[in-house]
Amino acid sequence: MTEIQFHHEAPDKLLAACQLIDAAWRQGRRILVYAPQTGVAAQIDKLLWTQSALSFIPHCRNESPLAAETPVVIGASLDDASHHDVLLNLDGELPSGFSRFEQLIEIVGRDEEDKQAARVRYKFYKERGYPLSAKPFSA
Prior knowledge:
31% of the residues lie in helices and 22% in strands. By secondary structure, it is of the alpha/beta class.
């Protein structure tokens, strides 16, 4: 059953995503970054290239021919996922097909709209018996 982690009160969701991606990648995990909005996908792609001068997180878009062998993939769909390890949700909606993944990471910002959408997702997961954890995001 998919383990679900909520990281709430993130001051910047995309920077928080980069830090969580980095931590998971350093643990040897493979991550699919679910970003169905093209602007968000482009931003996270750029941030992963530029977040730190001393680190590099190998990543690509899901349409890349290298996606199957790249540890971090950014995509707008879960249908063509090359693995089912970690899913990081950068959308405000419940990702269809999330239950195929071993772990789902949800990041919740500080604005009320984002919190409300996260509460709906949390309730959905809880009602279905998924193992949940929630903690404030810490850099």
